[in-house]
Amino acid sequence: MFRQRLHSLLQTLMLPFKRSIRTRLIITMVLLVIPPTIAVTLLATTNSRQAMEDQVIQTNLSNMKWTGIYLDQQFDQLNSLIYSALIHPDMSAYLSNYGNQSLSEQYSDQRNISNLITNMYYSAGNYMVGVDIYVDDRKKLFRYNSYEASVNSLTAAPEVFSQLVEQNKDFIVHTDEEDRSKFRMIRSINRFENRQKQGYISLDVRWSMMDQTLDLLNQGSNHPILLVDGSGELLYQSSGEQLSADIWRQVQQVQQAQQQQAQQSAGGPYYLAADGAYIFYYPSSALELTLIKVIPKSFVHQSSIQTMKYGLIVGIVSAVLSMLIAAFLGWQISKPIVQLAHSMRGLSFMRRQEQQPISSRIDEIGLLEVKLHNMQNRIQEHILNEYQMELDKKNAELRALQAQINPHFMQNTMQMIGSMIFSSSPEQSYQMIRSLSDMFRYVLREPDELATVETELKHVQNYLTIQEQRFGGRLKVNMDCDERFLQARLPKLTLQPIVENAFFHGLEPKQGDWQLHISTQFAADRDTLCMSIRDNGVGMNSRQLAQLRARLAFNEKVLWTSGKQIGLANIASRIHIQFGRRYGIEVNSSEQNGTEVMVKIPAADKGDVQ
Length: 610
Known about the structure:
- The protein contains 15 helices and 18 strands.
- By secondary structure, the protein is α+β, with helices and mostly antiparallel strands.
- Among the domains are: about 70-205, Beta-Lactamase; about 210-300, Beta-Lactamase; about 405-600, Histidine kinase-like ATPase, C-terminal domain (Heat Shock Protein 90).
- A six-stranded antiparallel sheet has the order 3-2-1-6-5-4, with helices on both faces. The chain has a five-stranded antiparallel sheet with strand order 8-7-11-10-9, sandwiched between helices.
- Helix 12 (about 455-470) runs parallel beside helix 13.
- The radius of gyration is 52 Å and the shape is elongated.
- The chain starts with a helix and ends in an 8-residue tail after the last strand.
C-alpha cells in the first residue's frame, strides 16, 4: 500500500517533466553547468592558495640565498682586513722578536703595530668603531678607536683571549652587551708551527653595516630578520617585532636542523614550516652564523585568503550567470519546438495514410512526431515544387542577363543610324552600316563567352564611329590603351554600355563640346588591370553618386533591371560573378565636372572564380 502511494506520488511529481520538454531541458542544462562550475571554482581557489604559498616560499628562499651571499661577502671583507694584519711584516717581526730586543727596538716594534692598527681602523670605513690587537707573550694590548689610541701592559690575559683558548676557537662573533648596536669580530693569532694561540685581533663594527644587505629581505614588509650564532644565541635583529617565546624556541631548533643538513648537503637556504610561522634560514659560509627570517603564516594566509575570496566571488557570480544562461538557452532552444507543437495542434486537415508505429511520448516531441509524420509526403512534394520553381527562376535570371543588353543597345543605335541615312553620303552610310553590322555580329555570339580587351575596344570603336558621325566635330574621343593589355579577358559587352551611358547621362545634357577619354593602366598591385572611361559631362551631385555607389555595392541581388538603367549594376554583377568581389566597377564624379568609371579586372585570365 505504501509503495503504491509512493509510486503514485512520484508519478504526480514527474508528470510536469514528462509533459514539457522545456522544463526537462532547462533543469538538465542547469545540472550540467552548475556542478562543473562549482568544482572548477573550488579547484582554482585551492590551486591559487597553494600557488600563492609556493610563490612566497620560493621568493623568500631566493632572497635568502642572495642576501646570505652578500652578507658573507661583507664578513669576508672584515676577515680580509684581519688577515692583512696577520701576514703584515711588522706583525710577524713583533711576534718573533720577543726577548731578543733592546728597548729602542721594542719601542720601534710597538710603534709599527700602532701604525698598523691605525691603518686598519681608517681603511675599514665609517662602520668601524675600534680595533684591538692583543699579544699574550708581551701582555700588550693595542687599542685604537674614536676615543683613544693606546698601548697597555696587562698583568693578566683579557677574558676574550681566555675564551678562545678554553673553547679552542679561532674566531668569535658576539654582540657588545653594553651597546647592542655593534658587534665584535675576534680572530686568534696562532703560531705557525704548532697553532698555539699568541693573541687576537678584534674589530668593533656597527651592525648598521649589515642593514642595507638585510633590508633586501624586507622589501614591502617588516618581518623579523635575525642573525644567530652557532650556539643559538641572538646576535642581531634588524627589523620586525620581538619574537614570542614559542617562535623563538622553534628558531633555536633551526640550529639543530642546520647541523643535520650541513652533514648531508652543503649550501642552503632552507625553510621550516613551524607552528604559526615559516622560518627561512641560511648558514653563513664565512662564520658560524645563521641568517634567519620569520614570516607569520597569517601573512601568507592573508594573501591567499584574499585570492580565495575573490575566487569565490567570481565562482558564485559565474555559477549564477551559468544558471541564468543555461535557463535562457534552454528556454530559447525549446521555444521553437513548443511554438511548433502549439501550432501543430490545429492541423487536422492532413490525409491519413498507413504509417509506421510511432512512439508513445506525450510531450511536445510526441505531438510533433504524430503531426510531422502525417505531413511528410506533402512536404516532400512542396519541397520538390519549390526547388523546381527556384531553378526556373535562376534560369530566367540568366537568360534575362543577355536579354536586357541587346534590346537596349539596338534601340539607341538604330535611332542614330536612321537619322544619319538622310543626312550623309552613301559612303558614310555604308561605313555606319558596316560598323553596325560588326556590332551585331559581336553581340550575337555566345552570351556567356569572355571577350578580350582588344575585341571589346573594337566594339567600342564601332559604336564611337557612329556617334562621331552623328555629333560631328562636337565630340572628341581619345583612346590610350597599352598593347600589353589587349589579351586580358573580361565579360562581353562591358565597355560599350558604359560609353553609351556616358553619352546618355553625361554628355547629351551638356552644352558645348564633348570629350571622352578611354585608357588602361596597371593598379598598384600589378595584378589588376584598370580601364578608365572618363567624360566631361554634367556629372552627378554627392547624393546621386552615393545612391549609385550603394546600388553597385548590392548588385549581386540585382542581376537585371529594366528600361534605361542597364549599365553599371549589370556590368558590376557580371564582373563579380566571373572574377570575384575583388574586381568590379568604381565611379567618381562631381557636378558639372564629368564622371569617371573605372573597370577593374584581372591583368591575366583567371577564369570563373565564383
